Amino acid sequence: MYLNKNCRKCGTKLTINNIFNSLIKQYSWICKDCFKEYSRNYIKENFEYLQNYRRNHVLGTGKGCNIHGITKRTFTGFCEICNIKGKVLKYHHWDDADLVKGKVVKGVWVCHACHYIVEAADQIDKINKYLSLKREIECSTSNGIMLKQLNTI
Description:
alpha+beta
């Protein structure tokens, strides 16, 4: 079904299937293809600004949603655990009560590998149990091997 309008950018006849729906007047009466092109160009031209905004004010959650409008600690450019530069960094936070607009969210900048470590460190009781089990197994295994070696001599 054709609408009685043409795209403001390319002049294509607008249909229900190819019109970009927006409440923002700037994007009204524009086709989806023109909006995609505009979006790509905007991202290319403003990449550094958008990257810095995301680093400082958007927090991704493990559930696939992003929380906007918060403030993170300044981006360090290196993992604060292993001090390695050049890796993709994530912002690990530990208190969901901080997720309020304008409030600084406490957290650390960590690489992917160290992020597993800090996630595990938040569950210290499980780590302690693992370490005690590891010590028990190490002791029992080394004693068992020594007994077997003595029996064969």
